[in-house]
Amino acid sequence: MQLAKWQSGGEYFTYDQQALFYRTDGEGPVLLLIHGYPTASYDWVKLWPTLTQHFRCITLDMLGFGFSSKAPTKYQITEQEGRVMTLPFLIFLHCIEVHKRF
User: Fold this and answer.
1) Full-model pTM
2) pLDDT in tens, 34-85
3) Contact 15, 86 (CB under 8 A)
4) In three state form, how does the secondary structure of the chain look?
């Protein structure tokens, strides 16, 4: 899959006035796929078709990476964790029940 097609299959979630790019597809148990540092959600492109046959897969570009906003800030991994696992993002994706289990 080409990068442009990957982007066109995604959507954006606004958090703290910044746009987080994400993709979701498939049915079944939720599988949240977080890309490495410093890369992007496109890392999952080759596994995506197989995983989405068995799971509801969710992946995103952390702020400053991929198609997400590039605000003038330091993108430290400890700050990214708080943005990715924010309650508003999980509620938006209807995954709050998964969050409560952990």
Assistant:
1) 0.78
2) 887 789 999 999 999 999 999 999 998 988 889 998 877 666 666 666 655 5
3) yes
4) CCHHHHHHCCEEEEECCEEEEEEEECCCCEEEEECCCCCCHHHHCCCHHHHCCCCEEEEECCCCCCCCCCCCCCCCHHHHHHHHCCHHHHHHCCCHHHHHHC
Please, which residues have CB within 8 angstroms of residue 42's CB and are 6 or more apart in sequence? 3, 6, 35, 66
Quote the pLDDT of residue 48.
97
Please count the residues of the chain.
102
Residue 58, amino acid = I
Q: Which two tokens stand for residue 7?
A: 């982007």
